[in-house]
Amino acid sequence: MILQQFKNYKTIVLLPLMIIAIFFLCSCMAKNPMLREQELMNKMASKYPYSFIKKGFAGIDVINNKKDEVEIYEVYGGTPADEADVKPGDILLEAKGIVIKKRSQLFDILDSMYPNETVTIKIRRNGQEIEKNLKLSTYNYPNDFYALLEMVYKDSNVRLAVLPGEIQNMYKVDPELLEKWKKSVGTEIVGYAESTYINFFRTQKNFIVIDRHQTDKILNEIQFQNSGLVSDEQRKQIGKLLGATHIVTVNLSRHISKGSKPNDTMTRRLAEVETGKILATFAINLGDN
């Protein structure tokens, strides 16, 4: 029974992660991917409210273009902006009566608003100024994603390293098998975390996830084990070796399960490399999703 728990880790641990990742990675293929993504996040937030931050959502992504204008780069299908006929290429002039010169201003405005509130924006399209009213929908952002989003929109250059943290298992099993399990699970949960970050921030030029091969090379050089990053100093050391500004450690704890459902808790911790400060945490039970 215990050995079977180890052999089936891909089904028990990774299937829920795969389901979550598919919602992100298939976003370009779905008819209204943002609506499906919102639905998933809202469902998870109802179970784990402390791991999410609820915000009003307009459904646009903006960039500072070559003319130093705030340009609407992407409009997500089925969102308030899409319903108001906002289009990619529109130039954002005002939001809530405030002249918009930088995209960080738009972030601050939306950050201060709640779902179901209406924000009036003024755009320029083909030389004509147009006003649009957007009734904000609800989006529950994972805490770490929202912290990163704020940095990106405020034009910080983010170089993110995703590392395995503590991989624990409460079952008693052969130590050699346990180490193989930890290594396999650590590799997989880091891979899925990387994929979701890359997809979520795919349009942001000032955000990169450090190449996994480079990360693995550094971890092998310092003989890092799957016992976790035990100190701020270690995080700082690894981050600097990788040239990272921020590190996310992904942790997994397997608890004794009395039934057929998995009892695995996954946590992510976002930390600033230079100071070691924890900026956000996210935790869910994989068996619930």
What this model shows, in words?
The protein has helices at residues 2-7, 9-25, 33-47, 80-83, 103-111, 143-153, 175-200, 212-221, 232-242, and strands spanning 52-57, 60-64, 70-75, 91-95, 98-99, 118-125, 128-135, 137-142, 158-169, 207-209, 246-254, 264-272, 278-285. It is of the alpha+beta class and 289 residues long. The protein folds into two domains: 2-52 and 142-288, ABC-type transport auxiliary lipoprotein component (Rossmann fold, 3-Layer(aba) Sandwich); 59-135, PDZ domain (Pdz3 Domain). The protein has a five-stranded mixed β-sheet with strand order 10-9-11-12-13. It has a four-stranded antiparallel β-sheet with strand order 5-4-6-7. Helix 2 (9-25) packs parallel to helix 7. Mean pLDDT is 83; it is low at 1-7, 9-13, 22-31 and 226-230.
- Count of folded domains: 2
* Percentage beta strand: 25-35%
Under CATH, the topology of the largest domain can be stated as Rossmann fold
Strand pairing plus helix content: what structural class? alpha+beta
Query: CATH class of the largest domain, anyone?
Result: Alpha Beta
Number of helical stretches of at least 4 residues:
9
